[in-house]
Design goal:
The protein is of the alpha+beta class. It has one domain (5-238): VC0467-like (3-Layer(aba) Sandwich). Helix content is 25%, strand content 28%. The protein has eight helices and twelve strands. The chain has helices spanning 5-9, 18-25, 27-39, 148-156, 175-183, 194-197, 203-209, 230-234, and strands at 52-56, 69-72, 80-85, 89-93, 110-113, 117-127, 135-139, 142-145, 163-174, 187-191, 220-222, 225-227. Strand 7 (135-139) and strand 8 form a beta hairpin.
């Protein structure tokens, strides 16, 4: 991965570079993104895979990922793997992005920096008793939504309930690249804890998870699927 270091340097100023312009563009950006999605060919829906956290090591050399916790997502562009950083909120609120106003429970929620790739691409992770439309089920009652128009509808609906996090951007690797970083000790692999995704005090998430040692070499074959991270994704007990 080649992170945009200039953008990262402005991360805590003006809602981390691209996020600042996203806040100014607001609903206009979402409308354009929705149009782009609508004009794409219809593809088969992705199947869910077991998710997990990547936790940055204490000596992570890349400043973009220092003290980061990444929620890994189902693969949709093999051989690439991707996830979103869950513990880096920006100064932008959901209420500043969407008009008409959002549901009251969502207005003050922060927008999160998901990673240095595709900074203009929104992704919503939501915990809900019912599956939203155009959503991919990650596990039990947790879903991801990438369609910009659907994200707006969910956040504006006071009946949607549940908990939601909006991420801009993502982290992305080639499988072999991430495997190499795992072997070098840059990351630890940790079972997903849903409560930590929606933790209000996101600053403590990395500290909590980095206190423990975890298996780093996880190359495996499971359920007929090959991949650098298949062991964690196939293990039924890995998500809770």
């Amino acid at each position: 991965m080649k992170p945009d270091r200039k953008c990262y340097a402005l991360w805590n100023k003006a809602a981390r570079c691209a996020l600042a312009s996203f806040a100014l563009a607001g609903s206009a950006m979402l409308a354009v993104a929705a149009l782009m999605v609508a004009t794409q060919a219809v593809a088969e829906p992705r199947t869910s895979a077991k998710s997990f956290f990547l936790v940055a090591s204490a000596d992570m050399p890349d400043p973009v990922f220092q003290q980061s916790v990444i929620l890994m997502l189902p693969e949709d562009e093999p051989p690439l793997v991707a996830g979103v950083i869950i513990n880096k909120p920006t100064d932008v609120t959901l209420g500043s992005l969407f008009k008409p106003p959002l549901a009251p429970q969502n207005r003050s929620q922060k927008v999160y920096f998901g990673g240095p790739v595709d900074l203009d691409a929104p992704l919503l992770v939501i915990r809900s008793v019912r599956q939203p439309k155009v959503a991919i089920k990650l596990w039990t009652d947790v879903y991801e939504v990438e369609d910009a128009s659907s994200i707006g509808d969910i956040l504006k609906d006071p009946r949607s309930g549940g908990e939601a996090r909006l991420y801009m951007g993502r982290a992305q690797w080639a499988q072999e690249q991430l495997r190499g970083e795992l072997l070098e000790g840059a990351w630890s692999v940790v079972p997903v804890n849903t409560n930590l995704i929606f933790e209000h005090d996101s600053a403590k998430v990395w500290r909590m998870l980095s206190q423990h040692q975890h298996v780093r070499e996880i190359m495996a074959h499971c359920g007929g699927v090959d991949g650098v991270l298949t062991l964690t994704m196939c293990n039924e007990s890995f998500t809770h």
